[in-house]
Amino acid sequence: MRRAVLEWGRFILIWGVCVLSFRAFAFGSYYVPSESMLPTLAVGDHFIAAKYAYGYSRHSPDITLPEGFIPTADGRLLSHLPQRGDIVVLKPEGAPEALVKRVIGLPGDTVQLAHGRLVLNGQVIGRHETGAYDYRDDHGRTVHVTEYVEDLPATDGSLARHAVLQRSDEGPADNTGVYTVPAGHVFLMGDNRDNSQDSRFPYPDLGFVPLDRVIARAQFTAYTNHFCKAESDLTCPGGDWSTRFGRSLKP
């Protein structure tokens, strides 16, 4: 009897170590808490992200490790720089939960918003309108938006095309100064441009994000608790609940 208990205990311990290692170093599951990534991700979407994509830092496990735990110059192992257009998971300083945003600027890039248009390294990024509609937000309010596809240049020479929403081209964060992304940091934004606290807003909101706090690259949606149904004259941004399963999140 004692031997059987010990065998079961060893099995449970090994299984637990394997699960924790998988979550820490391979893939993680995350929940979308806000509308900042509409129409790509909606409140209630659960998605899978690759933790190995950019290497590992002390923030990669579910529990942040002590400072200096990884003794490298940049605090990362197997470090890889994200591409513009990647949707990433980050652990911002002072925030209790991980956030999800899109990479817009890399170290050395300049980023600006001018009349709602993204200006990257002095070039206005192309976009084309795909429609205007009303939707009911997470607080029950009706919001009017215009949806565009933006042609963000990825670092490999391709275009990381993705949808963005604009309520207006003259909102509070639609005309900014020029941001120069410092070394070891990235500039992140939400796809719902007029409803996103992102790198346009300095710390303690978000500001430039250190690379060691970028912990994973979003891969695909797994399932959703977002049960939006199109109403008369109202749309579900990005589609209703039935279209949100297994959706690729790569640009």
Automatic annotation (TrEMBL):
Q: Which GO terms describe its biological process?
A: signal peptide processing
Q: GO: which molecular function terms?
A: serine-type endopeptidase activity; signal peptidase activity
Lineage of the source organism?
Bacteria, Pseudomonadati, Pseudomonadota, Alphaproteobacteria, Rhodospirillales
Q: Which reaction does it catalyse?
A: Cleavage of hydrophobic, N-terminal signal or leader sequences from secreted and periplasmic proteins
PANTHER family on file: CHLOROPLAST PROCESSING PEPTIDASE, SIGNAL PEPTIDASE I
Membrane topology listed for this record: Single-pass type II membrane protein
Q: Which key words are in the record?
A: Hydrolase, Membrane, Protease, Transmembrane, Transmembrane helix
User: Where does this protein reside within or beyond the cell?
Assistant: Membrane
Record-annotated Peptidase S26 domain positions:
6-221
- What name does UniProt use for this protein? Signal peptidase I
The keyword Hydrolase is assigned to this record? yes
The residues annotated as the active site are 36, 101
InterPro entries per the UniProt record, alphabetical: LexA/Signal_pep-like_sf, Pept_S26A_signal_pept_1, Pept_S26A_signal_pept_1_Lys-AS, Pept_S26A_signal_pept_1_Ser-AS, Peptidase_S26
Segments spanning the bilayer are 12-32
The record, for Gene3D superfamilies, names: Umud Fragment, subunit A
Give the protein family. Answer: Belongs to the peptidase S26 family.
Q: Which CDD domains match?
A: S26_SPase_I
A single Gene Ontology CC annotation of this entry is: membrane
In short, the EC number is 3.4.21.89
Top EC class, one word: hydrolase
